[in-house]
Amino acid sequence: MPVLSGTVAVFASMLVASGLLSLIDTKFFSSFYGAVGTGWLIGYFSDNVLASLQKLAHKWFGTVDEPKGSSGTTVTSRETA
User: Model-level pTM greater than 0.85?
Assistant: First the structure.
């Protein structure tokens, strides 16, 4: 998903430039090539990170159809009659 990868790269760059995420020196981002190169690396590998985060969210919180803590059994209209 190129749009999600680009979005992650842009917001990660904003976090680094603001100083909230101090993995990379903010002076490095004053160079156009440094900012573009870092954004490319973050965007290139972000699809795997997003997929892992989705799996983790499903494990921790469940889904709308099957929330965490449900036994997986649903009552149908025939069983209630």
Answer: no
Beta bridge partners of 62: 67
Residue 31 CA to residue 71 CA, distance in Å, equals 54
For the segment 40-80, what is each residue's pLDDT rounded down to a tens digit? 888 888 888 888 888 988 888 887 777 766 555 555 555 55
Cβ count within 10 A of residue 39: 19
* Of 72 and 5, more confident: 5
How many Cβ atoms are within 10 Å of 36's Cβ, its own excluded? Answer: 13
Q: What is the 3-state secondary structure (H, E, C) of the chain?
A: CHHHHHHHHHHHHHHHHHCCCCCCCHHHHHCHHHHHHHHHHHHHHHHHHHHHHHHHHHHHHECCCCECCCCCCCCCHHHHC
Contact (CB, 8 A) for 76 and 38: no
